[in-house]
């Protein structure tokens, strides 16, 4: 029988015979090696949080008025008001699409266009 010695990171183990023989005897040497290795915790990689915000924050012709209004009435009431205004504008776009016979895909495209224009003009600052 050949004796083989393995040393990994300061831990060593000897095998007598073939690899199959060391596991054939119940894997005792494998269990001894596994017991001698301390539990190692591996930290999860740090993920960047997705940025939820307007890239044009503070830009646009209406941004100063929007920021001033938000500071005066408070963030909560401002967001409620903004939500109602956006919903109303979406309804106007929907009614317009119905009147000209545009399908749902075109309507959705117009709503996206309105959002982009609102960002550029500073309404979503």
TrEMBL record:
One of its GO terms (cellular component) is chloroplast. GO terms for molecular function: electron transfer activity. InterPro entries: PGR5 (IPR037497). One of its GO terms (biological process) is photosynthetic electron transport in photosystem I. This is Proton gradient regulation 5.
């Amino acid at each position: 029988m050949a004796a083989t010695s393995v040393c990994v990171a300061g831990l060593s183990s000897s095998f007598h015979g073939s690899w199959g023989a060391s596991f054939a005897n119940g894997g005792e040497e494998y269990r001894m090696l596994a017991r001698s290795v301390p539990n190692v915790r591996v930290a999860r990689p740090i993920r960047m949080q997705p940025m939820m915000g307007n890239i044009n924050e503070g830009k646009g012709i209406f941004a100063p008025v929007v920021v001033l209004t938000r500071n005066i009435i408070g963030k909560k009431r401002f967001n409620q008001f903004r939500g109602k205004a956006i919903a109303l504008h979406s309804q106007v776009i929907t009614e317009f699409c119905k009147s000209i016979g545009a399908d749902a895909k075109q309507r959705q495209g117009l709503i996206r266009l309105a959002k982009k224009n609102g960002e550029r003009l500073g309404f979503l600052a």
